[in-house]
Amino acid sequence: MLDRALTGSSMYYKLLGVLLILAAMGLAAFCIQYSRGLTVTGMSRDVSWGIYIAQFTFLVGIAASAVVVVLPLYIHNMKEFGKITVLAEFLAAASVVMSLLFVFVDLGKPSRILNIILYPSAGSILFWDVVALSGYLLLNLVIGWNTLEAERRGTALPRWVTPLIYISIPWAVSIHTVTAFIYAGLPARQYWLSAILAARFLASAFCSGPALLIVLCWLVKKHSRFDPGKDAIGKLAIIMTYAMLTSLFFLGLEFFTAFYSGIPSHMEALKYLFIGLNGHSGLVTLSWLFVALAAAAVVLLLSPNTRKNEGMLAAAAGCVFASMWIEKGVTLVVAGFIPNPLGKIFEYAPTFPELTIALGVWAVGFFILAALYRIAVSVKVEAAGQAVFRID
Amino acid sequence: MEASRRKFLRIGGACALGLGALGISDALAGSSEERETKRAEALSAARWGMAIDMKKCWENGKPGCIECILACHACHNVPDIGNRKEEIKWLWTEKYENAFPGQLSGLEPPAFRERPFLVLCNHCANAPCARVCPTRATFKRADGITMIDYHRCIGCRYCMAACPYGARSFNFKEPREHIKTELNRAFPTRERGVVENCNFCEERLGAGKVPACVEACEKQNCGAMVFGDLEDPGSKVRKLLAAHFSIRRKPELGTEPGVYYIIQGAHYA
Question: Rounded mean pLDDT of chain B?
Fold first, then answer.
């Protein structure tokens, strides 16, 4: 089946080519970082994690969100999701690869990464996250591959795969919970030290993941003969809407606790993000962009007319994705370090090599995703008895 | 051909899984690796700790005295990076409001607010840095010292996110080029990409000597820094703490810091 990734339209090859160039640029930037050290990044003694770990966190969420397709299909027998479950599983697999790569590029000593396995530490949440993510990657590849193979042959799913599917459901929830625990258990960081952080992570995952999936389905429909189906997209849109509202509600809870209690250490990071703190306001513009995008998404999603319009829904999904990327893929991690444990502020901004590496990792992920989707779509088109790829 | 390649991949995958599982079982079993061997002249304690008498520090020392910091950084080959973004520091000074954030009454004598407080790794009994380390490169010794294995650290900086005292520094660039003091060949320099912090001079304790900062302070006839066994009621540090009011940094976090600050009344008017 793998060979199908090697055949495709000229547009497919162009896409792969562009992604390959971006990945190569990322690799070049990583070589610079590898030879000169993390000094080439914007990270500092005070803000010791930046865009890499933020992307890792965000992408674990995208990976976990495959569960919003898998769970309704296998537990509630919502058949309309049958057509897109492989797409969701492959998106999860590509996202896990990206998140693991982001951990790798963040290391000061990448050559020692195997120490995580050679000298494992049961008390370290990061260790458990690596374990959980590796397992999840394997689950999604095995399940996705076998689902597709069954579809290609027109046979039923092998029986041994079904238990794996049921295991993958709580496993998806666990990867993002464990990722939240990386942050939520640190006595040093008041902005992260919140019991609702894991719930916030899951809620934002369950809107940003489906948002990306909706956009991807829209693209697949536009550029191939495979139609993911109006029903599946409609259901996804509803799930995304609820998750988006829940996500914003949870964020609101953080504001209430911080500002009604009036405890300075709880208010500081939020103040830094939205109004600036002691004259430092590096993330204020971005934070209000988050608010604007989130508001636009809610307005578009709450009205059934816009939600049911294909183009408008894609736009709304774009707003959901972008707003949640800002919140979880940038500001959440950075603001945790501001102010530092001594009450001082040292701001963070990513550097050009840092952004190039980050873009390169995204490109690697989307390269894998494009190849996996190419396989999935060609199998689905063939299985449906339709003619080959329209753009072939 | 197809079938045998598949079989190979399957077996390979199973083996990889098995190896991974080994790691997990290792982690669950926990580790009680004995990494310490003691020399006859070594100083030992149930739990090493320190008391810093700030009034003595300010009044007995020469104006602007930082002999302890210089001694520490020279003895441990601490590089002088020269910028706030990537600075490496084991022992340094902070104002009261930064060493004890949230503890400012707002009506202190202005002179007091400007006074330097010495800050360093607290060698917490419940050290968050050691708890979060994914490779056990940061670990607690039986005598309470928080240690870093520079050869095992992967540079993930999780410990820096976890430390409530900002006590940890990361080598963003090659540190050896920035060592401005005479190289101490008895102590390892570090590589780029690893985290470091105060080790309570465990290498000196092993050789029967008190920490470099304490020795430097004594040389100044200042006597502000007292080092000793926190679990021995007869130790100098315990007697001092029993006789004076002292505070610790962020005790509400439950980390049980091992560094105490003696605050004696002083007249500033």
Answer: 90
Cα nearest neighbour of B126 on chain A: A187
Nearest CA in chain A to B100: A342
Nearest to A140 by CA among A70, A61, A36: A70
Residue A311: closest CA among A239, A242, A221, A205: A221
Q: How many angstroms away from the CA of A136 is the closest CA of chain B?
A: 13
Partners of B256 in beta bridges: none
Structure confidence by residue, pLDDT tens digits, A234-278: 999 999 999 999 999 999 999 999 999 999 999 999 999 999 999
Instruction: Using pLDDT thresholds of 50, 70 and 90, give the confidence band for residue B21.
Output: low
Report CB contact under 8 Å: B152, A336: no
- A10 touches B: beta carbon within 8 Å: no
Q: How far is CA A58 from CA A201, A362, B62, B171, in A?
A: 9, 12, 53, 27
Phi-psi region of A343 (alpha: psi -120 to 50; beta: other; left: phi over 0): left
Q: A39 and chain B: CB distance < 8 Å anywhere?
A: yes
Averaged pLDDT for residues A335-346: 96
- Asked if B119 contacts B97 with a C-beta cutoff of 8 angstroms, the reply is no
How many angstroms separate the CA atoms of A131 and A126, rounded? 9
Does a structural domain hold residue B160?
Answer: yes
> Taking CB atoms and an 8 Å limit, are A37 and B192 in contact across chains?
yes
Q: Does the residue B130 lie in any domain? A: yes
Find the domain containing B79 and state its range. 46-262
Residue B20 and residue A107: Cβ atoms within 8 Å?
A: no
Pairing of strands B246-247, B91-95: unpaired
In a domain, B93, yes or no: yes
Instruction: Look up residue A156 and give its two tokens.
Output: 């039923």
Contact state of A46 with B166 under an 8 Å Cβ cutoff: yes
In chain B the first and final C-alpha atoms are separated, in Å, by 91
| B23 domain residue, yes or no | no
Using the structure block, give the residue that is written with the tokens 């070594």: B42
Task: Collect all residues with Cβ–Cβ distance below 8 Å to A10 and sequence separation of at least 6.
Answer: none
Question: Helices A85-106 and A67-74: crossing angle, nearest 10°?
Answer: 150
Residues B28, A186: C-beta atoms closer than 8 Å = no
Q: Calculate mean pLDDT across residues A130-149.
A: 92
Q: Do A121 and B94 touch (CB under 8 A)?
A: no
* Pair B260, B236: CB distance under 8 Å: no
Evaluate if residue A43 carries a pLDDT over 70: yes
Q: Is A199 on the interface with B (CB under 8 A)?
A: no
- pLDDT for res B10: 74
Instruction: Assess whether pLDDT exceeds 50 at residue A390.
Output: no
Q: Nearest 5°: CA angle at B155, between B152 and B158? A: 110
Nearest to A286 by CA among A48, A62, A51: A51
Question: Which CATH number covers residue B216?
Answer: 3.30.70.20
3-state secondary structure of B198: coil
What ipTM was reported for this prediction?
A: 0.91
Q: Residues 6 or more apart from A318 whose CB is under 8 A from it? A: A211, A215
Per-residue model confidence as pLDDT tens digits over B58-104: 999 888 899 999 999 999 999 999 999 999 999 999 999 999 998 88
